[in-house]
Design a protein that fits this description.
mainly alpha; 122 residues; 69% helix; single chain
Length: 122
């Protein structure tokens, strides 16, 4: 918010912010009993994606940058799994919240970013 850093201008960063907002809206639909369990884990995994992406973007070493991008992608996989479990439990209506496309697109973009970053190591 205060720092004017380059990664904030990236399309992926803006998509990640929107994904976090969508995840918070979905988690609001969960039953109260899940407030400190699945709902909390869902929110943490979503914020972990954008936080690790942002932190990785600030690293001067390509190796460190790639590692943080990989952590972000792993958190996205965690997020996808939690969404699947929540859907199986009937905690939200997938037609009400479009998460498949943003999650899939984010996975592809992070994977491409990791590949590009690692190729710059050579």
């Amino acid at each position: 918010m205060y720092l004017q850093l380059q990664h904030k201008n990236m399309h992926l960063y803006k998509e990640l912010k929107n994904l976090v907002k969508a995840v918070y809206l979905v988690s609001n639909k969960f039953p109260d009993v899940e407030r400190y369990a699945l709902s909390s884990q869902l929110r943490r995994s979503a914020t972990s994606v954008i936080l690790n992406f942002s932190e990785g973007s600030s690293k001067s070493s390509q190796a460190e940058r790639a590692r943080f991008y990989e952590i972000a992608r792993s958190s996205l996989v965690e997020l996808d799994t939690i969404i699947e479990i929540a859907n199986d439990l009937g905690y939200f209506n997938p037609q009400e919240f479009e998460l498949e496309q943003p999650i899939t697109l984010t996975f592809k973009r992070l994977s491409a970013l990791i590949k590009t970053t690692k190729s710059q190591l050579r």
